[in-house]
Fold each of these.
Amino acid sequence: MHLTDIREKLAARPDLTRQLAQVKEQVATCIQCGTCSGSCPNAGFMDMTPRRMWRAVLTDRVDMVFSSQTFMLCASCYVCTLRCPRGLPLTGAMAELKQVAFGLNLDRFKRSTLFYKAFMDNIRQYGRVRETEMMARYFLAVKDPRVPMSYTGMGIKLMAKHKLHPHLPTWGPGRLAPLFDRAKQQER
Amino acid sequence: MDYLYYPGCSLEGTAKEYDISCRALFEALEDRLTEIPDWTCCGATAAQCVDPFLSVVLPARNLALAEKTDTGLDVLVPCSACYLNLKKARQDLWENNALRAQVNQVLEEDGLAVNASVRVRHLLDVLTRDGAVDRVAQLSENRMKGLVIAPYYGCQCLRPYVEFDDPEQPRSMDALIRATGADVLAWDMGAVCCGASTATTKPQVGKELVGRILDQAKTAHAVVTVCPMCQMNLERFQSRSVPVVYLPQFLGLSLGMPAESLGCGMNLSDIRPVLSRVAP
Ligand code: SF4
Ligand code: SF4
């Protein structure tokens, strides 16, 4: 179902295609021993174990790779990177798969995409993360009342401990906007 | 000793007691922390997920500010995620001249320049290697005797950069805990991941991982942490009540510092079992 969709989207983005090729190169010497899967604290929650993910990358099964949630469940604990007998930079490779997935703007990762976008906008605007306002903007962006509900209990607890500080939103160009814009130019 | 201090965003919000207790503890130990003036976010988890270049630029800005103080002091970072971001940027910029030149063109916008000479250190590294153990031992008078403490390290202060401890069987906290008179729980969950930010998006992951960790801490009076994300997960996903305190809170209490001066009213877990030992 997603196959043509993902391949087409990738074909339209030579930069992401290149990045995926780099990931493939990074894991090129994988011997499929399974140490990474056996070490991963989140393997039980993944639809595909890390070992199988590297296999899919190496055999160019982009449909399998990006139909999976596996890399989204990587908590960056660095245990697989530490233990891989081939010394492969696996945590970094998982992070790159996240980057490609977000770059492709796949529907499946829409919520995470919006969350990270809200986060980056918050940094651009204030320089530091204002947790309360970031969450408010994220909730507005997802437009799904169930999402804010699931955070309410936590929010009340934090409020009671005086840890959430509603700031008035500040308008204007943004504290780190010049830096962000310059970085964008530089990347091209 | 003196240090430059990078608190990071969590310590201004959900981990405020970590900031309060760090500052108070270092004052009590007669070390000076100078907050990096005008610091900004290190990029957290977000930048590395969506924008690899910004994930270097954002920490680089803070390294540049640290260098600009011209003090030559080490940068002390209490948050493990900030620590890894700053440390990684520092290493990458140090090794890669082309990247450094590219980043400096961006930082110019802010009148800054980075040369990546500054040393980035985690709070635990500083506490275990710069003489704090002896000073705590002198000042604590074994105040924490009778308590059994489970040291929880998490991931990113230990891995991938192996700086001050074994990345899978860490021991560095043991000496600090013993210096207070307390005993250290012998367990093997201290370096097992709590789910980090995946627990925020997928709560069932946090529940299960934290459950496994806290199950092994049943015989301990409290768990001690060195990261806001670990602290948040361990406090949030409890199926039975376990006191979880930040290491500087615990050390401060052992020195007889008042609980309020260490932000002890702000923990989300019930830490009265620890407090009652020091102020019955
Ligand atoms: S541990 Fe390394 S070599 Fe073994 S399967 Fe995983 S990636 Fe491949
Ligand atoms: S770094 Fe990611 S993939 Fe590797 S073991 Fe940890 S959670 Fe699993």
Amino acid sequence: MVENKSIANVLMLKKLLIFTLIMFVFGFALVPFYEKFCEVTGINNLLRPDIQAKEIQVDESRWIMVEFDANTRGLPWQFKPLQTNARIHPGEPVSVMYEITNNSDREINGQAIPSYSPRFLDKYLKKFECFCFTKQTLKPNETRQMPVQFVIEPELPADIQTVTISYTFFELAAGVSAVNK
Amino acid sequence: MHNQDTQKKGSASIWQIAKAVMFAFMGIRKKSDLENDAATLTPAQVIIGGIIGAVLFVLGVMFVVRLVVS
Amino acid sequence: MAAVHGDVHGHEHDDHHPSGIMRWITTTNHKDIGTMYLWFSFAMFLVGGTLAMGIRAELYQPGIQILEPELFNQFTTLHGLIMVFGAIMPAFVGFANWQVPLMIGAPDMAFARMNNWSFWLLPVAATLLVSSFFVPGGAAAGGWTFYPPLSTQGGLGVDLMIFSVHILGASSIMGSINIITTILNMRAPGMTLMKMPLFVWTWLITAYLLVLVMPVLAGVVTMLLTDRHFGTSFFNAAGGGDPVMFQHIFWFFGHPEVYIMILPSFGIVSEVIPTFSRKPLFGYSSMVYATASIAILSCVVWAHHMFTAGMPTVGQLFFMYATMLIAVPTGVKVFNWTATMWRGSMSFETPMLFAIGFIFLFVIGGFSGVICAIVPIDIQVQDTYYVIAHFHYVLVSGSLFALFAGAYYWIPKWTGRMYNETLGKWHFWLSMFFFNLTFFVQHFLGLAGMPRRIPDYNLQFADFNMISSIGAFGFGSTQLLFLYIMINCIRSGEKAPQKPWDGATTLEWTHLPTPAPYHSFEKPPVVN
Ligand code: HEM
Ligand SMILES: [Cu+2]
């Protein structure tokens, strides 16, 4: 009787421990799941080129001021846009050059992360080319110029007259793969 | 429903499980029905029923959301 | 029913027990361990409370007077962590240790040795957490939810916190495995699942929730740790990670966690209300079902904590509707408690007062929760004092009041002595008054836009903050009265009658002498 009970208890203990382990693994499985979910639903699509699906109509009647901003965090690079702003029509293809210089004497990998103001700009911003889609590797004292090509769709709410596109370069530790492998 | 000879574990119909789960989600259940459930449902049935119920709940809410935003 | 089955055996079990401190370190007795859990959590409650006094002292007036902003943030962070993981959760486990075996007629917990371990992990974790104040850089300061990037940047204090959360999680998981096994395998003959007292039911479901989500918390803090020290980038945008993902995983744990902290108090209140209404619980079965469904549904509403973190409209609507629907089974419970009291012959001893106070104030907290769940409103009140008011109404006047109700209700059974009823009533009324003084005005502060987790504020908020601080000092001091009442009861309380509450019907009152003997139900009772 007592024997049976403790056997049943140990069996229960094992089941619950296995369940705990499964849930621990599940926690980690949420990571790829989250990424897949964002990919499928198109959330967080900051780092992949957009494809021009339809012909975008240029809205000649409207002007938008686009400001370009560049920062670095924790790496000895100089990073700046070659022009600080542009006055454009919605729907008009724009191309801007950015320049990075590695001021150190070691080779460094960096990854640029975009951020926009207003925050919902990403819904209306279609980027066809960007240095932020891949990691950038700079040799000691190398300088590089890189383009960004984009369109701001005419659907951008009418009360928005100025938008900011900002990039921040972070150092990628050696051996860490870039965002888009 | 109260057929005496069906009152054994695991003999519940799908519909009975579904009903038990539905009432559970609302949090109401008559005592007599509950005792009937307790007599005829196995834990596995209740758990699987509960999970299916939760999935249906999620799908249902999602459907309503679709209706609202479309 | 009332016959006390002689469980006091002739032979002395206590003989072969080490005495002094070793008794407590080596004990595997569920009553000893329950007692240790309760004292531990009360000690942590005082530590967390002291931090709260510091916070409210700083906020007494605008400007920085006492705590530098860095230290202030450490205070809020550790206050939250200590209250959640050190005070409320272990207190409920303490109740489970004492009451679950007594209420189902089991001689002890299923795994007595593991029970001892799961308790002794707690002081270790608490020491790590508290000592983090004294390491270079100080304690973690990014809030009890430790969102990255702050939690990936902080110093040694954050590592200590992560480690301590790991240990606390392990302890909770071991505790819940023990509780589940005890409830499922060790019930006395005749104690069918549907005859179990509601307190046991709520703990069974809570324990399942714990093994479901605690490992996820362990996973997410492990990811933080590897992000900090081993070059991974789970939450680091520069490395391809996403800080918002942390919030999703954290709240996947976090929302069930808030129900982990409230379901056992539903259980306690569901024992106290029928006893003092001298009526059986109205809708016992619906209560069981409502508890189970709250538990399941609580796993699909987590993102209501993240409405302003950036989410598509469909997501916001989904989580808004799901959250509001969860309030339905919660409402059913409130209805059932009220219906239990309806035309009962009620009396208002301290446990009942706390239980009724619980119902009133928990309803207020539930309503403010539903208001927070409405996306357009939440965008206004997120990260303001409105949210602080909401969760203190459900956690302090919810979980904590229920713990007080339980402590007054069962202390005669545990010690064989009565507490001082007059002082108990004072404790209740003072707590009630000062609690509302502290937290009701925080609704107004939040609606007016005062952000949480800041040491200084705009002049327009000065009056309400002063009121709130005065309330907090009162509430804090009142809890010392509780300590006094308990010590007084244990040392020199009047001898408790066999059954001080004539309405009580559960096994510990009907089948055991008072105080409960050190070894109880070695022969299973007969339940009919
Ligand atoms: C009727 C049921 C409830 C609803 C609808 C509800 C809803 C919400 C919502 C929407 C928030 C997020 C507010 C924001 O951050 O802007 C929130 C926060 C919170 N709730 Fe509730 N809640 C309910 C019950 C509870 C219970 C029972 C507890 C715990 C015992 C609880 C504890 C918390 C805590 C701790 C937070 C704040 C977490 C933080 O940001 O630090 N809630 N609640
Ligand atoms: Cu929540």
